[in-house]
Amino acid sequence: MRKINKKDIDYIAMGSTVLGTGGGGDPYIGKLLAKEAIEKYGEVPLIKAEELNDDALVVPIAAFGAPMILVEKLFSGDEFINAFEMMESYLGRKIDAVMPAEAGGLNGVIPFSIAAQKQIPLVDADGMGRAFPRLEMVTFTLHGIPVSPITQADEKGNRNVYHTINNEWGETLVGATAIQMGGSCAIGCYPMSGSQVKKAAVHGIVSYAQTLGESILNAKEQNLNPMNSLIERAAAIKLFTGKISNITIKTEGRWNKGVCEIIGLNENQDSLMVLDFQNEFLMAKKDGDPVAITPDLIVLIDAENAQPITAETIQYGTRVVVLGMKADKQWRTVKGIELGGPKKFGYKEEYVPVEELNKKK
Prior knowledge:
By secondary structure, this protein is α+β, with helices and mostly antiparallel strands. The protein folds into two domains: about 1-205, 3-Layer(aba) Sandwich (CV3147-like fold), CATH 3.40.1610.10; about 235-355, CV3147-like (Beta Barrel), CATH 2.40.390. Helix content is about 35%, strand content about 25%.
Protein backbone atom coordinates (compact mmCIF):
# COMPACT_ATOMS: atom_id res chain seq x y z
CA MET A 1 0.00 0.00 0.00
CA ARG A 2 1.08 3.55 -0.67
CA LYS A 3 -0.68 6.90 -0.27
CA ILE A 4 -1.74 9.04 -3.23
CA ASN A 5 -1.43 12.81 -2.72
CA LYS A 6 -2.52 15.81 -4.77
CA LYS A 7 0.71 15.92 -6.79
CA ASP A 8 0.32 12.26 -7.68
CA ILE A 9 -3.13 13.08 -9.10
CA ASP A 10 -1.51 15.40 -11.67
CA TYR A 11 0.71 12.57 -12.87
CA ILE A 12 -2.07 9.97 -12.87
CA ALA A 13 -4.42 12.29 -14.77
CA MET A 14 -1.78 12.93 -17.43
CA GLY A 15 -0.92 9.26 -17.81
CA SER A 16 -4.58 8.26 -17.85
CA THR A 17 -5.21 10.67 -20.69
CA VAL A 18 -2.41 8.97 -22.65
CA LEU A 19 -3.99 5.58 -21.95
CA GLY A 20 -7.42 7.00 -22.81
CA THR A 21 -6.41 6.89 -26.51
CA GLY A 22 -8.44 10.01 -27.27
CA GLY A 23 -11.37 9.09 -24.99
CA GLY A 24 -12.19 8.79 -21.32
CA GLY A 25 -13.13 12.46 -20.97
CA ASP A 26 -11.07 15.53 -20.17
CA PRO A 27 -9.50 14.90 -16.73
CA TYR A 28 -9.64 18.54 -15.55
CA ILE A 29 -12.87 18.31 -13.54
CA GLY A 30 -11.89 14.89 -12.21
CA LYS A 31 -8.57 16.31 -11.01
CA LEU A 32 -10.32 19.16 -9.20
CA LEU A 33 -12.77 16.82 -7.48
CA ALA A 34 -10.02 14.37 -6.50
CA LYS A 35 -7.69 17.06 -5.17
CA GLU A 36 -10.46 18.75 -3.23
CA ALA A 37 -11.42 15.46 -1.60
CA ILE A 38 -7.81 14.59 -0.75
CA GLU A 39 -7.26 18.03 0.78
CA LYS A 40 -10.40 17.66 2.91
CA TYR A 41 -10.30 13.97 3.84
CA GLY A 42 -6.66 12.96 3.46
CA GLU A 43 -4.50 10.96 1.07
CA VAL A 44 -5.90 7.85 -0.62
CA PRO A 45 -4.41 4.40 0.02
CA LEU A 46 -3.54 2.70 -3.27
CA ILE A 47 -3.43 -1.07 -2.88
CA LYS A 48 -2.48 -3.90 -5.20
CA ALA A 49 -5.17 -6.38 -6.17
CA GLU A 50 -3.34 -9.15 -4.32
CA GLU A 51 -3.70 -7.16 -1.09
CA LEU A 52 -7.50 -7.55 -1.23
CA ASN A 53 -9.27 -10.14 0.86
CA ASP A 54 -10.93 -12.68 -1.42
CA ASP A 55 -14.36 -11.77 -0.05
CA ALA A 56 -13.85 -7.98 -0.25
CA LEU A 57 -16.45 -6.00 -2.21
CA VAL A 58 -14.89 -3.85 -4.94
CA VAL A 59 -16.89 -1.53 -7.22
CA PRO A 60 -15.71 0.51 -10.22
CA ILE A 61 -17.14 4.05 -10.25
CA ALA A 62 -17.13 5.94 -13.56
CA ALA A 63 -18.42 8.82 -15.63
CA PHE A 64 -20.62 7.64 -18.48
CA GLY A 65 -21.46 9.66 -21.58
CA ALA A 66 -20.14 11.52 -24.60
CA PRO A 67 -16.82 13.30 -23.90
CA MET A 68 -17.90 16.28 -26.05
CA ILE A 69 -20.83 16.84 -23.69
CA LEU A 70 -18.60 16.60 -20.63
CA VAL A 71 -16.74 19.72 -21.81
CA GLU A 72 -19.87 21.84 -21.24
CA LYS A 73 -22.00 19.80 -18.82
CA LEU A 74 -19.86 19.60 -15.71
CA PHE A 75 -20.19 17.08 -12.90
CA SER A 76 -20.96 18.30 -9.38
CA GLY A 77 -19.37 15.28 -7.72
CA ASP A 78 -22.54 14.39 -5.82
CA GLU A 79 -23.67 12.05 -8.59
CA PHE A 80 -20.64 9.79 -8.04
CA ILE A 81 -21.28 9.57 -4.29
CA ASN A 82 -24.93 8.82 -5.03
CA ALA A 83 -23.99 5.99 -7.41
CA PHE A 84 -21.62 4.60 -4.76
CA GLU A 85 -24.13 4.79 -1.90
CA MET A 86 -26.91 3.32 -4.06
CA MET A 87 -24.71 0.28 -4.69
CA GLU A 88 -24.06 -0.19 -0.97
CA SER A 89 -27.76 0.16 -0.22
CA TYR A 90 -28.80 -2.25 -2.96
CA LEU A 91 -26.25 -4.92 -2.04
CA GLY A 92 -26.81 -4.44 1.68
CA ARG A 93 -23.14 -4.18 2.64
CA LYS A 94 -20.26 -1.74 2.73
CA ILE A 95 -17.97 -1.38 -0.28
CA ASP A 96 -14.40 -2.20 0.78
CA ALA A 97 -12.56 -0.56 -2.12
CA VAL A 98 -13.17 1.27 -5.38
CA MET A 99 -11.31 1.10 -8.67
CA PRO A 100 -11.38 2.79 -12.09
CA ALA A 101 -13.48 1.10 -14.74
CA GLU A 102 -11.01 2.34 -17.34
CA ALA A 103 -7.63 4.03 -17.31
CA GLY A 104 -8.83 6.95 -19.39
CA GLY A 105 -8.75 10.70 -18.68
CA LEU A 106 -11.55 11.66 -16.31
CA ASN A 107 -12.31 8.05 -15.38
CA GLY A 108 -8.71 7.47 -14.38
CA VAL A 109 -8.95 9.99 -11.52
CA ILE A 110 -12.61 10.39 -10.49
CA PRO A 111 -12.59 7.26 -8.23
CA PHE A 112 -9.96 8.97 -6.04
CA SER A 113 -12.59 11.49 -4.98
CA ILE A 114 -14.87 8.68 -3.80
CA ALA A 115 -12.06 6.81 -2.07
CA ALA A 116 -11.00 9.93 -0.16
CA GLN A 117 -14.53 10.83 0.92
CA LYS A 118 -15.38 7.30 2.00
CA GLN A 119 -11.97 6.66 3.60
CA ILE A 120 -11.43 3.44 1.67
CA PRO A 121 -8.57 2.28 -0.58
CA LEU A 122 -8.43 2.41 -4.36
CA VAL A 123 -7.25 -0.72 -6.16
CA ASP A 124 -4.32 -0.37 -8.56
CA ALA A 125 -6.22 -2.00 -11.43
CA ASP A 126 -8.93 -1.37 -13.98
CA GLY A 127 -10.99 -3.25 -16.56
CA MET A 128 -9.31 -2.11 -19.79
CA GLY A 129 -5.73 -0.89 -19.46
CA ARG A 130 -6.96 1.88 -21.77
CA ALA A 131 -10.38 3.40 -22.58
CA PHE A 132 -13.13 1.85 -24.69
CA PRO A 133 -16.45 3.36 -25.79
CA ARG A 134 -18.84 0.63 -24.62
CA LEU A 135 -19.71 -0.58 -21.11
CA GLU A 136 -19.28 -4.27 -21.90
CA MET A 137 -15.77 -3.74 -23.32
CA VAL A 138 -13.90 -4.69 -20.17
CA THR A 139 -11.75 -7.64 -19.19
CA PHE A 140 -14.42 -8.47 -16.60
CA THR A 141 -16.70 -9.50 -19.48
CA LEU A 142 -13.98 -11.83 -20.75
CA HIS A 143 -14.14 -13.61 -17.38
CA GLY A 144 -17.93 -13.86 -17.29
CA ILE A 145 -18.43 -11.22 -14.58
CA PRO A 146 -21.83 -9.49 -14.91
CA VAL A 147 -22.10 -5.72 -15.16
CA SER A 148 -25.22 -5.78 -12.96
CA PRO A 149 -26.35 -4.39 -10.69
CA ILE A 150 -25.64 -1.00 -12.23
CA THR A 151 -26.36 2.17 -10.28
CA GLN A 152 -26.86 5.42 -12.20
CA ALA A 153 -27.15 9.00 -10.97
CA ASP A 154 -27.17 12.43 -12.58
CA GLU A 155 -26.50 15.94 -11.28
CA LYS A 156 -30.22 16.65 -10.92
CA GLY A 157 -30.78 13.86 -8.42
CA ASN A 158 -32.29 11.24 -10.75
CA ARG A 159 -31.28 7.69 -9.84
CA ASN A 160 -31.74 4.25 -11.37
CA VAL A 161 -30.72 0.68 -10.61
CA TYR A 162 -30.47 -1.83 -13.47
CA HIS A 163 -30.36 -5.60 -13.68
CA THR A 164 -29.64 -6.58 -17.28
CA ILE A 165 -29.68 -9.98 -18.95
CA ASN A 166 -26.09 -9.51 -20.17
CA ASN A 167 -23.37 -6.88 -20.27
CA GLU A 168 -24.32 -5.62 -23.74
CA TRP A 169 -27.81 -4.78 -22.47
CA GLY A 170 -26.16 -2.76 -19.71
CA GLU A 171 -24.67 -0.50 -22.37
CA THR A 172 -27.97 -0.30 -24.24
CA LEU A 173 -30.20 0.60 -21.30
CA VAL A 174 -27.84 2.85 -19.33
CA GLY A 175 -26.81 4.53 -22.58
CA ALA A 176 -30.42 5.32 -23.48
CA THR A 177 -31.11 6.80 -20.06
CA ALA A 178 -27.85 8.78 -20.07
CA ILE A 179 -29.02 10.59 -23.20
CA GLN A 180 -32.20 11.64 -21.41
CA MET A 181 -30.08 12.80 -18.47
CA GLY A 182 -28.36 15.27 -20.76
CA GLY A 183 -25.72 13.02 -22.26
CA SER A 184 -23.74 12.14 -19.14
CA CYS A 185 -24.13 10.57 -15.71
CA ALA A 186 -22.26 8.67 -13.00
CA ILE A 187 -22.43 4.90 -12.63
CA GLY A 188 -21.37 2.12 -10.32
CA CYS A 189 -20.99 -1.23 -12.08
CA TYR A 190 -19.35 -4.67 -12.09
CA PRO A 191 -19.43 -5.22 -8.30
CA MET A 192 -16.80 -7.87 -7.69
CA SER A 193 -15.18 -9.89 -4.95
CA GLY A 194 -11.49 -9.50 -4.24
CA SER A 195 -10.83 -12.90 -5.81
CA GLN A 196 -12.59 -11.81 -9.02
CA VAL A 197 -10.53 -8.63 -9.22
CA LYS A 198 -7.33 -10.67 -8.84
CA LYS A 199 -8.39 -12.89 -11.74
CA ALA A 200 -10.08 -10.49 -14.15
CA ALA A 201 -8.60 -6.98 -13.85
CA VAL A 202 -5.70 -5.30 -15.63
CA HIS A 203 -3.24 -4.97 -12.74
CA GLY A 204 -0.94 -2.06 -11.91
CA ILE A 205 -2.63 0.35 -14.31
CA VAL A 206 -2.85 3.31 -11.91
CA SER A 207 0.87 3.07 -11.13
CA TYR A 208 1.56 2.75 -14.85
CA ALA A 209 -0.50 5.87 -15.58
CA GLN A 210 1.46 7.73 -12.91
CA THR A 211 4.74 6.59 -14.46
CA LEU A 212 3.65 7.84 -17.90
CA GLY A 213 2.54 11.17 -16.43
CA GLU A 214 5.87 11.59 -14.65
CA SER A 215 7.73 10.87 -17.88
CA ILE A 216 6.03 13.90 -19.48
CA LEU A 217 5.76 16.36 -16.60
CA ASN A 218 9.20 15.75 -15.06
CA ALA A 219 11.19 15.49 -18.30
CA LYS A 220 12.39 19.08 -18.56
CA GLU A 221 13.76 19.27 -15.04
CA GLN A 222 15.66 16.07 -15.84
CA ASN A 223 16.99 17.63 -19.07
CA LEU A 224 15.04 15.12 -21.14
CA ASN A 225 12.82 15.53 -24.18
CA PRO A 226 9.23 14.90 -22.95
CA MET A 227 8.20 13.15 -26.16
CA ASN A 228 11.18 10.83 -26.15
CA SER A 229 10.73 10.21 -22.44
CA LEU A 230 7.10 9.18 -22.98
CA ILE A 231 7.92 6.96 -25.96
CA GLU A 232 10.63 5.18 -23.98
CA ARG A 233 8.53 4.75 -20.82
CA ALA A 234 5.49 3.51 -22.76
CA ALA A 235 7.49 1.31 -25.13
CA ALA A 236 5.50 3.11 -27.82
CA ILE A 237 5.98 3.05 -31.58
CA LYS A 238 6.15 6.40 -33.32
CA LEU A 239 3.66 6.03 -36.16
CA PHE A 240 3.48 9.50 -37.69
CA THR A 241 4.50 13.15 -37.40
CA GLY A 242 2.30 15.78 -38.99
CA LYS A 243 -0.23 18.58 -38.72
CA ILE A 244 -4.01 18.35 -38.29
CA SER A 245 -5.48 19.18 -41.70
CA ASN A 246 -9.13 18.21 -41.20
CA ILE A 247 -11.42 17.08 -38.39
CA THR A 248 -14.97 15.78 -38.71
CA ILE A 249 -16.77 15.09 -35.45
CA LYS A 250 -20.38 14.64 -34.36
CA THR A 251 -22.12 13.50 -31.20
CA GLU A 252 -24.20 10.44 -32.00
CA GLY A 253 -26.06 9.02 -29.02
CA ARG A 254 -23.48 9.07 -26.24
CA TRP A 255 -20.46 8.88 -28.52
CA ASN A 256 -18.22 11.32 -30.30
CA LYS A 257 -17.72 9.85 -33.76
CA GLY A 258 -15.44 11.22 -36.40
CA VAL A 259 -12.34 11.22 -38.55
CA CYS A 260 -9.10 13.16 -38.10
CA GLU A 261 -6.78 13.75 -41.07
CA ILE A 262 -3.10 14.57 -40.53
CA ILE A 263 -0.77 15.71 -43.30
CA GLY A 264 2.81 14.52 -42.88
CA LEU A 265 5.78 16.59 -41.78
CA ASN A 266 9.49 15.86 -41.47
CA GLU A 267 10.08 12.14 -42.14
CA ASN A 268 6.42 11.76 -43.12
CA GLN A 269 6.38 14.56 -45.69
CA ASP A 270 3.91 13.86 -48.55
CA SER A 271 2.07 11.19 -46.51
CA LEU A 272 -1.41 11.30 -44.98
CA MET A 273 -2.62 9.68 -41.78
CA VAL A 274 -6.31 9.16 -41.05
CA LEU A 275 -7.58 8.38 -37.54
CA ASP A 276 -11.08 6.96 -37.04
CA PHE A 277 -12.60 7.39 -33.60
CA GLN A 278 -15.68 6.58 -31.56
CA ASN A 279 -14.77 8.43 -28.35
CA GLU A 280 -11.44 6.55 -28.61
CA PHE A 281 -9.12 6.25 -31.62
CA LEU A 282 -9.82 2.86 -33.18
CA MET A 283 -7.98 2.78 -36.51
CA ALA A 284 -4.90 4.58 -37.82
CA LYS A 285 -4.12 4.39 -41.53
CA LYS A 286 -1.05 5.79 -43.23
CA ASP A 287 -1.59 6.38 -46.94
CA GLY A 288 -4.55 4.00 -46.80
CA ASP A 289 -2.80 1.14 -44.98
CA PRO A 290 -3.46 0.31 -41.29
CA VAL A 291 -0.57 0.98 -38.92
CA ALA A 292 -2.53 0.51 -35.67
CA ILE A 293 -5.85 -1.23 -35.00
CA THR A 294 -8.00 -1.55 -31.89
CA PRO A 295 -7.59 -3.02 -29.28
CA ASP A 296 -4.02 -1.70 -29.49
CA LEU A 297 -3.71 1.89 -28.32
CA ILE A 298 -3.56 4.84 -30.71
CA VAL A 299 -2.38 7.99 -28.93
CA LEU A 300 -2.40 11.54 -30.33
CA ILE A 301 0.26 13.79 -28.78
CA ASP A 302 0.84 17.53 -29.17
CA ALA A 303 4.29 17.81 -30.75
CA GLU A 304 5.04 21.07 -28.94
CA ASN A 305 4.56 19.95 -25.34
CA ALA A 306 4.04 16.15 -25.44
CA GLN A 307 0.55 16.53 -23.96
CA PRO A 308 -2.03 13.90 -25.00
CA ILE A 309 -4.94 15.20 -27.07
CA THR A 310 -8.48 13.90 -26.58
CA ALA A 311 -10.70 13.48 -29.63
CA GLU A 312 -13.09 16.29 -28.66
CA THR A 313 -10.24 18.82 -28.30
CA ILE A 314 -8.50 18.25 -31.67
CA GLN A 315 -7.84 21.57 -33.42
CA TYR A 316 -6.98 22.34 -37.01
CA GLY A 317 -3.31 23.16 -37.56
CA THR A 318 -1.93 21.52 -34.41
CA ARG A 319 1.38 19.76 -34.94
CA VAL A 320 1.09 16.24 -33.59
CA VAL A 321 2.80 12.90 -33.18
CA VAL A 322 0.79 9.67 -33.37
CA LEU A 323 1.96 6.80 -31.18
CA GLY A 324 1.00 3.14 -31.12
CA MET A 325 1.09 1.06 -27.94
CA LYS A 326 0.45 -2.60 -27.22
CA ALA A 327 -2.85 -3.50 -25.58
CA ASP A 328 -2.89 -5.60 -22.44
CA LYS A 329 -2.37 -9.28 -23.20
CA GLN A 330 -6.00 -10.09 -22.34
CA TRP A 331 -7.15 -8.04 -25.34
CA ARG A 332 -4.84 -9.95 -27.66
CA THR A 333 -6.60 -13.25 -27.07
CA VAL A 334 -9.28 -14.59 -29.41
CA LYS A 335 -12.01 -13.54 -26.98
CA GLY A 336 -10.38 -10.14 -26.42
CA ILE A 337 -10.16 -9.38 -30.14
CA GLU A 338 -13.77 -10.46 -30.59
CA LEU A 339 -14.89 -8.04 -27.85
CA GLY A 340 -12.65 -5.04 -28.54
CA GLY A 341 -11.22 -5.63 -32.00
CA PRO A 342 -12.00 -4.08 -35.41
CA LYS A 343 -14.94 -6.32 -36.33
CA LYS A 344 -16.80 -5.14 -33.21
CA PHE A 345 -16.78 -1.62 -34.68
CA GLY A 346 -17.70 -2.62 -38.21
CA TYR A 347 -14.24 -2.50 -39.79
CA LYS A 348 -13.43 -5.09 -42.44
CA GLU A 349 -9.75 -5.25 -41.48
CA GLU A 350 -8.46 -8.10 -39.36
CA TYR A 351 -6.58 -7.29 -36.16
CA VAL A 352 -2.80 -7.35 -36.54
CA PRO A 353 -0.58 -6.38 -33.57
CA VAL A 354 0.85 -2.89 -33.88
CA GLU A 355 4.43 -4.15 -33.72
CA GLU A 356 3.75 -6.52 -36.63
CA LEU A 357 2.19 -3.75 -38.73
CA ASN A 358 5.25 -1.56 -38.19
CA LYS A 359 8.11 -4.00 -38.62
CA LYS A 360 10.96 -2.23 -40.33
CA LYS A 361 11.53 -3.60 -43.79
